[in-house]
Amino acid sequence: MKFRFVLSITALIVAFVFFFLVFRWLARNPEAANPNDLVLANGTRSPVLVELFTSEGCSSCPPADELLKSLDQSQPVAGVEVIALSEHVDYWNRLGWADPFSSAQFSERQNDYANVFGPDEIYTPQMIVDGRTQFVGSNSSRASAAIATAARDPKAEMTVTLAKRPTSLADEVPIDIHVANLPNVSAGDTAELMLAITESGLRSNVSRGENSGRKLIHTAVVRKLSNLGLVDSTSGSFSSKASATIEKGWTRNNLKAVVFVQERASRRVLGATSVSIVPSE
């Protein structure tokens, strides 16, 4: 009897250790959890906004650009929709190569994030996930873990539809936006509705600077970023209208409209979605 009792205690201890190790592994590898848990009430995958601050003048940026491309195209985290934004900063331009996709607006946006992460956290390549987590943009393991973790935060259900398809360059494209089940905005903060127009498949032959002689390919480059105004979060649901202008030189079939809701002070992203400007036939 005593022998059986000892075996029972041993079995309980083994079982406890086993389940403890399993739960700890799942905590460290959230992407391995049930992807069905990430599906929103409207049946869509949990959206996660992944921003990359990059520059063609930065020699350590191409691997990060490749990682963003992989995240955007392969969608590697089960149950998650990665929504990519590649924002080219302009402070590298003075060092030998003027990035044709750079903008002071993106440098300013990165500075806004530094108000949250700290003044020393301005560098390239920098990847920011849902406005909450930042790390070196070429770190694929950090990216996967951060995306899987962010996917478990409450998300608004967002839909974006085009009122009509663009028929020519410089065409104005009306966009209808609907948001439901918006998570509570942090106390003392406000939320803004943002619209980004992105273009993929962009190429550059860099002739000067740290990447001289390299041919670079970019995904989800932000061509235009607009603040559509503050969100009335009291009801948790709202609708809005916007428009996007397709400018000369943009390839229409490679364009997307990305809409997201973001807290102004904390930079937390409350929801995001995207739609192709010219849907495939």
Summarize the structure.
By secondary structure, the protein is α+β, with helices and mostly antiparallel strands. It contains 4 helices and 13 strands.
Give an overview in words:
The protein has 281 residues and is of the alpha+beta class. The chain has a single domain (39-276), classed as Macroglobulin (MG2) domain (Immunoglobulin-like). Helices cover 23% and strands 33% of the residues. It has helices spanning 2-28, 61-74, 104-117, 140-150, and strands at residues 46-54, 80-88, 126-129, 133-136, 157-162, 172-180, 191-199, 202-205, 215-218, 221-230, 238-245, 255-263, 269-276. It starts with a helix and ends in a 5-residue tail after the last strand. Mean pLDDT is 87; it is low at 19-23.
Keywords for this structure?
281 residues; globular; alpha+beta; Immunoglobulin-like; four-stranded antiparallel β-sheet; single chain; four-stranded mixed β-sheet; 4 helices
